[in-house]
Task: structure prediction
Amino acid sequence: DAGITQSPRHKVTETGTPVTLRCHQTENHRYMYWYRQDPGHGLRLIHYSYGVKDTDKGEVSDGYSVSRSKTEDFLLTLESATSSQTSVYFCAISVAASGGTDTQYFGPGTRLTVL
Amino acid sequence: GQNIDQPTEMTATEGAIVQINCTYQTSGFNGLFWYQQHAGEAPTFLSYNVLDGLEEKGRFSSFLSRSKGYSYLLLKELQMKDSASYLCAFTGGGNKLTFGTGTQLKVEL
Result:
């Protein structure tokens, strides 16, 4: 258990509404990530963070913004949700391995449906 | 560019051995990861390879050939609970992973 929680776990919203997903970690890891997972596409990186207020874009960042004001929280915001953003969203943290490659561990996921 | 490929589906028999292949192309390479994902759940870390060769972890082993851009996950003594999607991913540096679309493994009696 990497101490990652996501909220909400399920959400149904309407097109055009703002949505914020929260990822919370308890172990002060520096790197945090947001992915979306869709059939036929696998896991795709949306945004990631390498420290408080330090974030960067992934491969599918259009329509999403993120914020990290505290080490433990990484927020993903859909400013105006669209049906194409219906997906399962996973948060991940990177755990530094002594003498080895850092490994990512995933939160339980948020299932978002945009009607 | 970067690319990663693995079969979409595989079926195997309980008690048997199955090998799931993964090929990748990238200009920078730091390591190859395998994750298991049961339906409706989060991916869970299985193994990683940084150097060429075989890494064994109980019933699961993972192999890497950096020169060929090739890896496989070997599952021995298959159990019904091994039915899941297996995700291959590489890191080219910068603490970011590029995932394949996953191989859905079905274990039958």
Remarks:
- DSSP finds no helices and eleven strands in chain B.
- The longest strand of chain B covers residues 18-25.
- The mean pLDDT of chain B is 95.
- The interface with chain A takes residues 30-31, 33, 41-45, 48, 50, 87, 89, 91, 95-97, 99-102 of chain B (CB under 8 Å).
